[in-house]
Amino acid sequence: MTPKPSLILSVLAAAVVVVFSANLSPQAQGTPQQPPRAEARVLSPGDVLKADEVDFIEHPGHYGLGSELRGSRYAISEGYLVRVDPNNLQVQSVLRGNVRPMD
Fold it and tell me: What are the alphabetically sorted keywords of the record (predicted)?
């Protein structure tokens, strides 16, 4: 049995419609390619931070924290809310991640 030419044309037309509709979806164009990000550093108690990696918190209440403990300061480093020794910047505890400076 030989397929009818109208059936072949219908199938081809449907295929063309599918191909074109797939290409009409919104696509990002002209966006710069970002280099692959290095894996984020995971902070742990005992790590010593560099001074340029530390944003000290001036208003702990903005982060749901109470007053600072003696011999420590709250800070944000690499997206982590941490408690550090202000003298040597050693991490005393990691409180939570995914934090941005608010003050």
Answer: Signal
Summarize pLDDT for 2-13 with one digit per residue, the tens: 566 777 767 767
Higher-confidence position of 37 and 11: 11
Q: What whole-number distance in Å separates Cα of residue 59 and Cα of residue 61?
A: 5
- In angstroms, rounded to a whole number, what is the distance separating the alpha carbons of residues 60 and 12? 66
pLDDT at 19 over 70: no
Residue-level pLDDT at 28: 54
Of 43, 44, 64, 54, which is closest to residue 87 (Cα–Cα)?
A: 54
Which amino acid would we find at residue 58? E
Place of tokens 């509709």: 21
Find the radius of gyration of the CA atoms of the chain: 28
